[in-house]
Amino acid sequence: MKNRELPSLFAGRGRGWVRAATAALAALLLAPAASADTLVDNVKGYTLNERGVLVTFEALLVGTDGRVKQLLRKGDRRPDRPDYRLDGRGRVMIPGLIDGHGHVLGLGFQAMQLDLSDTRSLEEAQVKIAAFAAANPSPRWIVGRGWNQERWNLGRFPTAADIDAVVRDRPVWLERIDGHAGWANSAAMEAAKITAASKAPTGGKIEMAGKAPSGVFIDAAMELVGKAVPPPLPRTRDEALAKSQEIMLSQGLTSVADMGTNVEDWSAMRRAGDANRLRVRILSYAMGLDPLLSIAGAGPTPWLYDGRLRMIGVKLYSDGALGSRGAWLKAPYQDSPKESGLGFNSDAEIRNLMSRAAMDNFQVAVHAIGDKANEQLLGAIEELAETYKGDRRWRIEHAQIIDPTDIARFGRNSIIASMQPVHEASDWRMAEARMGRERLGGAYAWATMLQNKVPLAFGSDFPVESPNPFHGLAVAVTREDAEGQPPGGWMPEQKLTMEQAFAGFTTGAAFAGFAEERLGSLQPGRLADFLLIDRDIFTVPPRDVRDTQVLETWVGGRKAWERSKGAVTR
Amino acid sequence: MKNRELPSLFAGRGRGWVRAATAALAALLLAPAASADTLVDNVKGYTLNERGVLVTFEALLVGTDGRVKQLLRKGDRRPDRPDYRLDGRGRVMIPGLIDGHGHVLGLGFQAMQLDLSDTRSLEEAQVKIAAFAAANPSPRWIVGRGWNQERWNLGRFPTAADIDAVVRDRPVWLERIDGHAGWANSAAMEAAKITAASKAPTGGKIEMAGKAPSGVFIDAAMELVGKAVPPPLPRTRDEALAKSQEIMLSQGLTSVADMGTNVEDWSAMRRAGDANRLRVRILSYAMGLDPLLSIAGAGPTPWLYDGRLRMIGVKLYSDGALGSRGAWLKAPYQDSPKESGLGFNSDAEIRNLMSRAAMDNFQVAVHAIGDKANEQLLGAIEELAETYKGDRRWRIEHAQIIDPTDIARFGRNSIIASMQPVHEASDWRMAEARMGRERLGGAYAWATMLQNKVPLAFGSDFPVESPNPFHGLAVAVTREDAEGQPPGGWMPEQKLTMEQAFAGFTTGAAFAGFAEERLGSLQPGRLADFLLIDRDIFTVPPRDVRDTQVLETWVGGRKAWERSKGAVTR
């Protein structure tokens, strides 16, 4: 253990204290922190307790097993001789946050790829594409993501010619911000053998410019180009996983539900686990039945690597996304009246897929954005619940646009609504354009969900959105975007209290993954995953929550990241 | 721990001893054996020491870490208070044997499938196929293996009609004993859409009966039917792995090199490891580059699960097998002068495959049966060794028929000859028919290999042959088959001493897998994997070695199997 890795909690004290601390440090050098009881004292701690009530504490005692041993309140007698005593200096402590819906490898790849998510116009994007190509001369393909023609106010999809104007010599393939459309240059279409005669597969669409493909491919049609992209090398996946974990820890995420793990992703996670490089806890939902059965076999895996990895179920898809008009709606799109989205499966098909997973006790999580897709799943679950009894925790991912008459059906079967508050802030204008305000009564309807006793799990859908959970918390309590729009919030009756929002990213997300006995709450016996943050999210003005800075991130009773020093090697 | 799981070493003693033992048993019930030192006393122990010299011992002290702590000889002072003391009653102890080339899942599947390896005629095979079909009405396909038209003295390959005569209503697909040919009935060919117009892929051959496929498919052509066979369910793979381990332990194998692990096999191994159900040690060589890179990524995995699983390298193929005339020869087959076998790759291709693995420090093991295939690999390794320096341990699997002028080339680059003594006993008649005696001067040439200082690793190629390593030891010292043919041995100058043969299945096989620091020898610090067997293989008449019975099999200082009780749950 090197000096720079010592807890920063010791920092900023006087001389005498330094000497005392030095003795403690000497002890630390003799044994790793996790092998002894650690008292973190003098914090302003918050956690939801077993009954879901927000409680406060002033000190946390962590056992040698990396689990919480005791919460202490002001005046409580401290243990006589904890092996280590750290001074929290009055900072705010909360449980490590859980992202209930993210894409772990995707986040790492995004950080390593061309990122267009901050571009405000097509021209800005073109400048950035050109600069990236110049800075990265070796890769055979330039791959990126993050564009959003809505944000650009382009009034149309971009085209291959828009990229050709800046990069012509190499294939370029750029996914839309929601991952539901791809934008290719001419070289990419040539490499993928796309011609005017190419046909979109079911569930997909090729945008046309006259008689030829324009360069944009929607949903299932993305695979026409995507399959020509050279797959990342295993080494690149390992880097992406490391990068992703670093980002998560820095944002205050200690656990994540990986929504769509393929065999290659899983291999990278296992390599990281085998090499003691898993630093966050990953609850994996396989990308369809094939990897699920291939990897996990006859049932969910146990928690592996000291509670850092588990494959518990499957991710399925019922429809596409709203931005690319792939979301499956009960009525046509207002801004494209001939379309009503893409239903990926017949009722029988989706039921059979869900049933195959459920029969081996796998948890089932299904993507559904549009009101029609959600209705299909509600019907499927109502039917399946008659066969598969017990505590199944069927999950609907996104549960974005619900017909108000359908919301009560979530509660009746205790179906988990796995929602991403930031989507509301990103989407509200587009949602109004796509569907009109009057059809959005059940859109991003967090408060109505809770009123209907629907178990709510919150996440970010990173890298579609920033993984920063404080953005999600802020949106959940304000219904305003980063620019404060619309002032007072969009459909403000759906705002949550901070306590409700906090539950979504802690106990709610843990419950959604059958992990409430270990994650999401700082109580004796639960894992000591916690954050020290720079402000009290329960008392600052709601808009300030977004800018919360994580100071330290602890996983299993050991510090995994700190602001001043970055990642802390285990 | 239940009574029936207690060490059988206590069995068969007088009353007073029983009382004393009962006290010891009570202690055992309080703590698992591996958590304390165990002295196994009063054995006739043999092991090769660090210098490869056979040494004897009378007692073995095993540490709490499952490793050997001390070997004690007659008269050596015993430790004052070992936690457990077991009486070996004078039985013979040897290190757990290592199969340097087996197919772990294949062995389990074989045990669960139709097995024709004991049939002596086509008629016997037909009776067995019919009986299996009657006993197993549910599987959609009947799959099996083990037929050998040579052993049947059929003078031809069997045909689809031969199966149709007994099973017509379901597809039947039966692999030849060497895995290099498959035999289908008409329903299987129909399911696989085989017609008179079907073409064999490169490296394969469709046997014809007049203008139509006869039902037998050689090497690469097997895939034409094989791809239509429904893949085993993960659950079935788990059963196969459990079955395979049970068979290995019962035969005295505690470790195995799995020669050709695919992604599904690896998943089953990981599931077993995750659930604490890995009972033997598996050193995995991936079935080609794709699973290698997908699973292991940028280099060999560490030893996982307390030293029970590691992916260290890749298995590649240079040619087919002799029985199906797929072995690639320098001159035409004597019994089919228009054929000289199937070379699977050009010189450049095989070199590139080997190079890709070696560049990430993976070990490379390549199948080569015929003299031309071996020559190709020797040339490739000579060239690659200039780039990939250091301790690479290139392996040639089988190294079966070598041009005598090529043998010295193995020694010069310390290329490991990974050979299976039982193949000699199974093949010698066929080898003479295929090539004529005068071209076999370097065939199954174990003694010549050793004279040329070639590192030798022995195995069985199970399930092509029985996994029983005592069969291999017996053949290695006699060059006679199970029936004692030919008396005095075939090419008897290639016989080995028992010490040399024993090295092949212990230290040699360990060295071939970079595992000599942990496996193959009972020395302080090495893993306490050992057997108690019913005879002294170093003193009984060589032919009696074949019938050696394993009494107990210990892995990592804990009993894993015993004859009277079968598998011992960890």
Kindly state the percentage of residues in helix of chain A.
25-40%
CATH architecture annotation name of the largest domain in chain A: Alpha-Beta Barrel
What is the number of helical segments of chain A per DSSP (H or I, 4+ residues)? 17
Query: Got a strand count of chain A?
Result: 25
CATH topology of the largest domain in chain A: TIM Barrel
Describe the structure.
2 copies of one chain form a homodimer. Chain A has 570 residues and is α/β, with parallel strands linked by helices. Chain A folds into 3 domains: 1-90 and 520-570, Urease, subunit C, domain 1 (Roll), CATH 2.30.40.10; 110-226, Roll (Diaminopimelate Epimerase, Chain A, domain 1); 318-462 and 470-493, Metal-dependent hydrolases (TIM Barrel, Alpha-Beta Barrel), CATH 3.20.20. In chain A, 30% of the residues lie in helices and 22% in strands. Chain A has 17 helices and 25 strands. Chain A has an 8-stranded parallel β-sheet with strand order 8-15-16-17-18-19-20-21. A 7-stranded mixed β-sheet of chain A has the order 3-2-7-22-23-24-25, covered by helices on one side. In chain A, helix 12 links the parallel strand 19 (395-398) and strand 20. In chain A, helix 10 packs across helix 11. The longest helix of chain A is centred in the middle third of the chain and has 18 residues, at 234-251. Chain A is globular, with a radius of gyration of 24 Å. The termini of chain A are close together. In chain A, 53% of the residues are buried.
